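ok so I'm stuck.
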Amino acid sequence: MLQCAGSLVTREELTSQLWPADTFVDFDHSLHNAIGRIREVLGNSAETPRYIETLPRRGYRFIPPVEGIQAPLIAVENGNQKGEAVAVASQAKRRAALILSLCSCLAIGLAAWAVRQHFYGKSTVPPMRSIAVLPLQNLSGDAAQEYFADGMTDELITEMSRIQALKVISRTSVMEYKGTKKHLPQIAHELGVDGIVEGSVVREGDQVRVTVQLLDGPNDRHLWSEDYQRPLRGILNLQREMAQAIAQQIRVELTPRQQARLSSARAVNPEAYEAYLRGRFYLTTGFTMKQPLNTAKSYFEESIRKDPEFALPYGGLADSYSYLAFFHHLSPEHAYRSASEAIHKALELDDSLGGPHTTLALLSWRYEWDLATAEREFNYAIAQAPE
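replied:
not stuck anymore, here's the structure
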């Protein structure tokens, strides 16, 4: 940007200059993060830029002009041509030195910022009481892995929703912004939130790498980011770790119970978790259609076979039976019995899950006309995940 001061430097140009063609990295996140840090060092802001201007969806521009120092022509015995060549070379060296000096200042400033953050931990993140988790990007290079990124988004929303002091926008609302080109302030205004969480997921064999960043939505300002890499077996703990980190950044007070839950999670069989996410994908995208519901039910049953102590697929299985009965006239007696068995097993394994309590409330109301139980379970589910 210093070399092209005053002119647009596109995101594509920056990407090609910084990373070789075969580099596997979240370019948008990395650029956004780097620009945010440079702005902080320069005392600059995206809203009133003095040095670096963002041209939405295009790139960046270094605003102040950068001038090289003019070197005088040097007279030499071999004539003017050689003298001019020496002057040009001298001027180029001085310009390179100037750019190097500016870059060095930025590097020193960034280093100082990193040291300050590491040793003093001074947070610049304002308190937030409402947040939206936008759909995580699938950067695996395989469109067939889209279900995995969507499933990770769902689970992060679920974990964030457990924080009672925080309003978290529902999955239904945020999925409308998947692949959107809208600016963050517009999204924040439409959803009525203070903060926005966005990021990406890369699945490589039994390893999962997740990049998340927290943004001041109304002001389109980068606040915090982190990269996580875990084996798939530890994915439940990873989701809770991310939720806890975000809660700490926005200074939301956690109850002792919430802290205990976010600090621990059991390992899960990787194949069971993958089958569960596939089941959730078919359940959420085709819950009114018979074939997707049967496919979802099969995946939940597979997940349970792979890991009988994994609570989440039991809740999904109960939902599958309920929807099949409601939309496709599956025998109510068979559906209720199967759904009831599954939901009680889910709650036996993990009573803190909000979803199964909602399903139990619906079953109690619709099939047993037990309104007292339905009300109790609905209230419990709301307390667990208000949004």
